Amino acid sequence: MVEVYVKSIRGAPSLDETARCVCEAVGSDELFAFGELLAEPKVTALRDSPQHAKFYRLLQLFAYGTYGDAIANKDDLPELSGLMTQKLRQLTLVSMCTRSRCITVEDAMNALHLQNLQDLYFLFIGALYKGILQGRVNSQQGTLEITSWKSRDVTDEELIKIREKLSDWIDHCASVADNLRAIASNAENAIAEANVNEAKVEEEVRRVRKTLQEEEEQRNLKDYRRPKTQRGKKYP
């Protein structure tokens, strides 16, 4: 779907037309990631135009921001249509999902600046039908329970943090692997030592058995050589 808007933006003859394409993209029910659009040269040109910069900020808002950001920066943005407002609120729910799969109704209403519980349920059900997220309303617990959601774009700063976390995770995995190798090596050494000890014990058992057998044979031989009347008696 994003290819359609990329093509429209690339074919836009003016900044006004590019701004119009941006508004269409953020209002679309089928587009939820905007990184490719932000990378387009004609879109970045909006940022450098005092008259059109607000449309660049609008695209950034839908890529990374929340409804709270829209409220806080409303003077620097174009006026949001009803569809844009609904979509941004639903994307805000997605951002909340990344922090917790279980969102309280109170937190959701505060983040979305809603006063009516039915409006929240309507918004949530709409997000389910659009495939923005999957989950259910737990009215008894007063929560929204989310099982999956669409990914949003990430800022360069967030990407750096993700890389750092991945690097830390890789280092941790390497440390765990080293520890496991050390444990395995110790276990192998212990097994080898146990095998050596077992071999020594078996050899000692064979030696003792052989000694006992030889002693028994010697006693039998001595007993055989004694007169019949003295056989079986103990030697003095």
UniProtKB/TrEMBL annotation:
This is COP9 signalosome complex subunit 7b. Residues 227-236 have a biased composition (Basic residues). Residues 211-236 are annotated as: Disordered. It comes from the Eukaryota. GO terms for cellular component: COP9 signalosome. Residues 1-151 form the PCI domain. Keywords: Signalosome. Belongs to the CSN7/EIF3M family. CSN7 subfamily. It comes from Ascaris suum (Pig roundworm). The keyword Ribosomal protein does not apply. The keyword Metal-binding does not apply.
